[in-house]
Design a protein that fits this description.
Rossmann fold; 2 domains; 6-stranded mixed beta sheet
Amino acid sequence: MSRYIGLIGYPLKHSVSPYFQQAALDYYQLDVRYEAWETAPTQLQDIVNSLRRPQNIGANVTVPHKETVLPLLDEVDGLASLIGAVNTIVKRGDKLVGFNTDAHGFIEALKRDGHFDPKGKRVAMLGAGGVARAVGLVLVQKKIASLAITDGIFDRASALTENLVRYIKGGPESLGNLEAKVSVFQWTNVKSAGTFAGCDLIVHCTTIGMKHSSQEGLSPLGLEVIPKTALVCDLVYNPWLTPLLRLAQEAGANILGGLSMLVYQGAASFKLWTGKEAPVDIMFSKAREMLTGG
């Protein structure tokens, strides 16, 4: 009997995860199918419950469900609980356990493909949803100097800021002193060049510019506000070169697309489901092929 892993999100037309995850499963000749399960918010509870069926192994969780899925699970691992977002569900016995591999995926991408060490750096983050929660926490853990957060919903950005400030004040001794200055700013300020002056890293964590979305073709930032000294990281991966990254290139900034994070987090999820090391090169190759046609 074939077994199944699903991708739970809405919408999913832009996603390449089913292709590169299937390529990884096929590499090991596993009788497992990875499928896109497009799930409207009203369907989330039923779809999560369906993971309990014998043929299902687990799932990835993407926009807009990474936060709302938590109370539907039996257990949530420590990191995912700290972040407040789950992107991977694993069935263990009769329990559904939530994990977060986004934090790992982001730092791997930043280090390996962005060639960027966040320690002591000044960061601005656009968006305060599920993926931003993971990015914000891991950047603080890596001892950045400062993090300025904004979101179209100001209260959401404020809540994330407060969470990170609390985490820093009560930071685990194993990480040493965490001294990042975390602040929140209004979304309207993204139009001001002064907002990003002195930024070493700008991380875009919303869906603006995503293919097949209502904001396809748009950029959250204008050319005039992007400092050429910054690394601009857009976690949107489809299209390959987003409107924001095109403008960042034009401004003379270094850029990092979202595909690296997607594959690295997917590789970590793969290991949680199968217990096997993910064939990362094969995953990257298939993901690029699906995005660029070659």
